[in-house]
Every structure is written in structure tokens, then in C-alpha cells.
Automatic annotation (TrEMBL):
Domain called UvrC family homology region profile: residue spans: 263-484
Molecular functions (GO terms): DNA binding; excinuclease ABC activity
A Pfam family assignment: UvrC_RNaseH_dom
Natural source organism: Alistipes indistinctus YIT 12060
Entries under InterPro entries matching the protein: GIY-YIG_endonuc, GIY-YIG_endonuc_sf, GIY-YIG_UvrC_Cho, RuvA_2-like, UVR_dom_sf, UvrABC_protein_C, UvrC, UvrC_RNase_H_dom
Name used for this protein in its record: UvrABC system protein C
Length: 629
């Protein structure tokens, strides 16, 4: 019974995993990691362990029986997941990863520290003054990059000693690589070291992820070749530019430029703090996890971060790296021998951003668990977030949103959707046919529907919303606000406008837009309301256009007036049903004489279509005459 409860709890955690690449860890009863694995899709991969499958090996079944908890780390690509898994396995050495415990090293690309430097593949990282780039997730990727480099730049591949003294002695002669255009012959003095070093500088920039120098270089060569009408060469440079456009060589998971350091990121939300920790050893992420803290009422973020760092340091048996990356500086005097820094650019900033991303995902998973177990608490939190972001006097439990729809001024309609506690209340949705506005005038249409909606609510004594959201910018908001003012409701109902372009929020009397954090739940609720109003309005507008088309066709029938058309539409709804209706069915609606006219009209159309079809079928096939040779 206890085991089944534990498996059920783990399945609930698995259901909250993201559909992203990453690395997952299974923990035993003692809190130690017993297995580390990688996944292209974390949710799908981890959930497979908890399915009753016959192809599971005995080892997998035993391991699943020992899982007490799980945690994960999200990365950008599957290749980064492979690298991170390798690093964690070597560092943690989990019990059930014994088959993956090897000393395999990943391939690097090295620019040798020598005259006319070679660009080579290697698996050995040495502190010899050479430049190392990588490592790469596979030899295939590394070789592909080397092929691109050698295709763009004419670099030597030989192992000759090209010091100035040996070249001056004239001992070497050009090889086949020179004759086929892959090398410019530095061994015989046909390429200067300065020119060669310029190419090596662009190679290094490319391997660091900066493609601008190489792109400009290829663009210049392509233009020169085209100007000289060497179109084959220009086409070759164009292909290299296309390869360059899709090139990505940099991985934040492993980088030889980073050295060894720890990374901490912190998010504080609604009285709860989340701190993510990453450990980097010689440029490789070897450990990552997130902890949850409950700060006191008056704790500043600096104090919370100091407490989190201290707690994680104790978990790591009192050891931190000498360099620690943080989003802001904690109380450093508590951690002697450790240098804290806030990165502003480059690889260290990307590493801090990766830590923050994992921290945000962990927070979202916790919030989803709360939503499942305690929906009322979730509603309270979302309403509080909306009240705070929009500067409201009370939580907006009742929200209404308006949207206009028309096609070049035809069939103008509007929609009103109602949300209660952040969720749609579809039975309260309303459509409006615009009655007083001619043409495409969204401002006047907004004025009309707001007037009609709240005049009626006031007459009926119905409940008023705490918030109105207008789909549009300053213009629509101004007309809607002036309408509320005429009705005496401007102090009773808050109103904002939400523009589609970059989700700008507008307030009355404020010409400047207000921007809510795109990851904020408050903005997501507003966008959901706005999109639902747009969907509801567009659906109604399409129905009206379709109805207008049917009316126009029925009005072509002689003796059939507007009243008869309305009766037919109310009864049959579509043209196809009217066509299939019998004379008696039509006569019940519009009388026998008009029913006969309808049947005669559609019969004539069918005859014309039949004649056109038969005439196409009777046309002889035209074939060219074959002449005798």
C-alpha cells in the first residue's frame, strides 16, 4: 500500500515535468542520487519508467522500486543534455549508472599554439597555450564544423614545422592540397604569417559563436567574384554563407573559458523563495538542483540569498568554489575565501540565465501542484497578482472584455466575454449587432456596445464587473472610458486597454503604455480574456457573413420578398437544405406559389450546370499529328 502511494506521488510529479530536453535524477530513500538520465522530452521519458511494460529489464524494475523522489534540470538542446548527463554521472557516480561510468572524453577543436597554427580535432585538453573550443556532443558534429572551417578558409593540414628559419632554408615543396586550392602554400613562403593569422582570428571568432567576421569575409568574396563574372566561385561562397546561417557551435553547458565556479539564482514570489544552484568544474556543469525557502516577513532579497547560499553550502559539506555567480551580491562577509560577482555579458551571463530558467520552471511546477491540490489558493494568488499589476482597489473576480469585428465595414459586430475568478463564464457571453455606426469605426462601435451593456445592467440592477478590458489601444480605451463616465460608473469599474502588438496595457488619463512582465500570470490572464473575446467575436462575424451570402442568393428568386427569405432561413438555415426540401415542406413556410418559384429557380440552375458539364465531357481530345519519318 505504501509503495503504491509512493508511485502515485511520483506519477503526479512526472505529470508536471516540462516537454523540454534536459537531465533527470532519481533519488533513493536516503536522498542520494541513484540514477541520472538524459531526455529529449523530460515528461515523456521519465513517465515511461512508471508504465507497466514487459520490456523493462529486471534492473529497471528494481531501480523503480527504490525511487523515493526525482528532480531535473532543463537545457536548451538534446546535445547539451548529453553533455550534462555525462558530467553528472562522472561527478555523482550513481549506483544504477554503472554501465555509463567510463572515462570517455568528448571531442574538442584546438587551434595549436605554433607558427601558422593548425586547426585540429582532439580529445585531450592541455594547458599548453593552445585555444580549445567545445566539447562537442559527437564526433560527427565536430567533423562537420571542421569541414565548414576548411571549406571557408584555406588552412594547412600538414604537420610540418613552419618556423621562419625552416621556411627560409627552402626544404619544403607544395603538396596536393596546394594544387587543389585547399592551402595557399605557407611552407614555401607563398602566404605570409600575418595573412594566415587573420584567417585564424576569424576561425576563433566563429568557434566562439561570433559569425559576423566570417559572414562579412564571405560576402566580400562573393561580391568580388560576381563583379568579375566568376559565377561558379560566387555560388560556392553563397553556399558557405547558407551553411554559416544555420551554424551554432557554442554550448553554455560546457565551456573551457569558464573554469570552475558555482552559480546561484533566486526568485521570490508571494512569500516563498526558490534558489537554483549549479556547480561548474573546469567549464562543465556537474550538479544542479533547486531548493525552496520560506523567508520571514521583513527579509530582504540580499538576506534571503545569503541564507540560501549558506544552506546549500552546508548541503555540499561546507565547500563552495572560489568564484560564485549571483544575480545580486549577498552578505559576502559570511563566506570568506569566496568571490561573488554579478555577470553582465558573455558566457557567465548565459550560465546565470540558464540557472534562472531552471528556477522559474521549478517555481511553476510548485504552483501547478498548489493549483491541483488547492484551487481556491490558486485563484486568490492570481487575483492578487492582477490587483497588484493593474493598481486596482480590489481583486477583479468579475472581468468583462469587449472586442469589435468587421470586414471593410461590412457586418459590424462586437463581443463581450465574462471571466469569473480568472476562468471563462461562457453562459454570460454576449454578442452585439452594431446598430448606430456606419462603416468601419471601431471607436464609435466600442462606445455603442459599452453603452448598451451597462445601461442594461444598471436598469436590471445586475452585478457590475470589477474590471473591464478593452481589446485595443488608447483610442478604444478613451471612448469606452468616456461612456462609463456618462453612465456615472467611472469610479465603480476599473478599465484598461490591451494592445495586441507587444501586449501594452493602457490606463485612462495615462498616454504612456504600461508593460507587464511577459512571464507574469497577470498578463497571461489578460491575454486569455482578450483572445477569448476575439475568438467569440470572429465566430459571430463569420456566421453573419455566411447568412448575408445566403440571403443575397435567395433574394434573386422572383416573387420572394424579405419576409419569405427570413422564414426560409429560420426553418432551413442553409441553401442546401432549402434545395433538398419538398414542395409541401416549402409550402408550409411560404405558400404553394412561392414554393413552386423556389423549386423552379434551383431546377433551372441545376440544368445550366448539367449542360456545362456535359459540354466539357463531349469536347474531343486534341492530339498532335504524328508525321512519318
Amino acid at each position: 500500500m505504501v509503495t503504491s502511494q509512493r508511485i502515485q506521488q511520483l506519477k503526479e510529479k512526472v505529470a508536471l515535468l516540462p516537454d523540454s530536453p534536459g537531465v533527470y535524477q532519481f533519488l533513493g530513500d536516503d536522498g542520494k542520487v541513484i540514477y541520472v538520465g538524459k531526455a529529449k522530452n523530460l515528461k515523456r521519458r521519465v513517465s515511461s519508467y512508471f508504465l507497466a511494460r514487459a520490456d523493462h529489464s529486471p534492473k529497471v524494475r528494481v531501480m523503480v522500486g527504490k525511487i523515493a523522489d526525482l528532480r531535473h534540470t532543463v537545457v536548451a538542446t538534446e546535445s547539451e543534455a548529453l553533455l550534462l548527463e555525462n558530467n553528472m554521472i562522472k561527478s555523482i557516480q550513481p549506483r544504477y549508472n554503472i554501465l555509463l561510468k567510463d572515462d570517455k572524453t568528448y571531442p574538442w577543436i584546438v587551434i595549436r599554439n605554433e607558427p601558422f597554427p593548425r586547426v585540429l580535432s582532439t580529445r585531450r585538453f592541455l594547458r599548453d597555450g593552445s585555444q580549445y573550443f567545445g566539447p562537442y556532443a559527437s564526433v560527427y558534429i565536430q567533423k562537420e564544423i571542421l569541414e565548414i572551417l576548411r571549406g571557408i578558409y584555406q588552412l594547412r593540414t600538414c604537420s610540418l614545422n613552419l618556423s621562419p628559419e625552416t621556411i627560409a632554408k627552402g626544404r619544403y615543396s607544395v603538396c596536393l592540397e596546394y594544387h587543389i586550392g585547399n592551402c595557399k602554400g605557407p611552407c614555401v613562403g607563398r602566404q605570409s604569417e600575418e595573412e594566415y593569422r587573420e584567417s585564424i582570428g576569424m576561425v576563433a571568432s566563429l568557434l566562439k559563436g561570433d559569425t559576423r567576421a566570417t559572414r562579412d569575409y564571405l560576402q566580400r568574396l562573393m561580391n568580388e567574384a560576381a563583379a568579375e563574372m566568376r559565377f561558379e566561385d560566387a555560388g560556392r561562397y553563397k553556399k558557405r554563407l547558407d551553411l554559416l546561417a544555420g551554424y551554432q557551435s557554442k554550448s553554455v553547458v560546457v565551456s573551457n573559458t569558464l573554469g570552475s565556479m558555482d552559480v546561484f539564482s533566486l526568485i521570490i514570489d508571494d512569500g516563498v523563495a526558490f534558489c537554483n544552484f549549479m556547480r561548474i568544474v573546469q567549464g562543465a556543469v556537474v550538479n544542479s538542483f533547486t531548493v525552496e525557502l520560506k523567508p520571514g516577513l521583513e527579509d530582504e532579497p540580499r538576506d534571503v540569498l545569503s541564507y540560501a547560499v549558506g544552506s546549500i553550502r552546508d548541503r555540499l559539506q561546507g565547500h563552495l568554489q572560489r568564484e560564485v555567480l549571483v544575480p545580486f551580491l549577498p552578505a559576502e562577509e559570511l563566506f570568506e575565501g569566496t568571490a561573488f560577482s554579478v555577470p553582465q555579458r558573455g558566457d557567465k551571463l548565459r550560465l546565470l540565465e540558464l540557472s534562472e530558467r531552471n528556477c522559474r520552471l521549478y517555481r511553476l511546477e510548485k504552483l501547478k501542484q498548489i493549483e491541483i491540490k488547492d484551487p481556491a489558493r490558486h485563484v486568490t494568488r492570481v487575483m492578487a497578482a492582477l490587483q497588484k499589476e493593474l493598481h486596482l482597489n480590489e481583486p477583479p473576480h468579475h472581468i468583462e472584455c469587449f472586442d469589435n469585428s468587421n470586414l471593410q465595414g461590412t457586418n459590424p459586430v462586437a463581443s463581450c466575454v465574462v471571466f469569473r475568478d480568472g476562468k471563462p463564464s461562457r453562459k454570460e457571453y454576449r454578442h452585439f449587432n452594431i446598430k448606430t455606426v456606419v462603416g468601419a469605426n471601431d471607436f464609435a462601435s466600442m462606445e455603442e456596445v459599452v453603452t448598451r451593456r451597462y445601461s442594461r445592467l444598471l436598469e436590471e440592477g445586475a452585478e457590475l464587473p470589477q474590471l473591464i478590458v478593452v481589446d485595443g489601444g488608447k483610442g478604444q480605451l478613451r471612448f469606452a472610458y468616456e461612456t462609463l463616465k456618462r453612465l456615472g460608473l467611472e469610479q465603480k469599474i476599473a478599465i484598461v486597454g490591451l494592445a495586441k502588438r507587444i501586449e501594452e496595457v493602457y490606463f485612462p488619463h495615462d498616454p504612456m503604455p504600461y508593460y507587464i512582465d511577459r512571464n507574469s500570470e497577470a498578463l497571461k490572464v489578460l491575454m486569455h480574456i482578450r483572445d477569448e473575446a476575439h475568438r467569440f467575436g470572429i465566430t459571430f462575424h463569420r456566421q453573419k457573413r455566411s447568412l448575408a451570402f445566403i440571403k443575397s442568393e435567395l433574394e434573386q428568386i422572383p416573387t420572394l420578398g424579405a419576409r419569405s427569405v427570413e422564414k426560409l432561413l429560420q426553418k432551413f438555415r442553409t441553401i442546401s437544405r432549402i434545395r433538398k426540401a419538398s414542395a409541401d415542406e416549402l409550402a408550409e413556410v411560404i405558400g404553394a406559389r412561392r414554393a413552386a418559384e423556389v423549386i423552379r429557380y434551383f431546377a433551372a440552375i441545376d440544368q445550366v450546370q448539367d449542360r456545362a458539364l456535359s459540354s466539357r465531357q463531349e469536347l474531343p481530345a486534341v492530339r498532335p499529328e504524328r508525321k512519318n519519318e
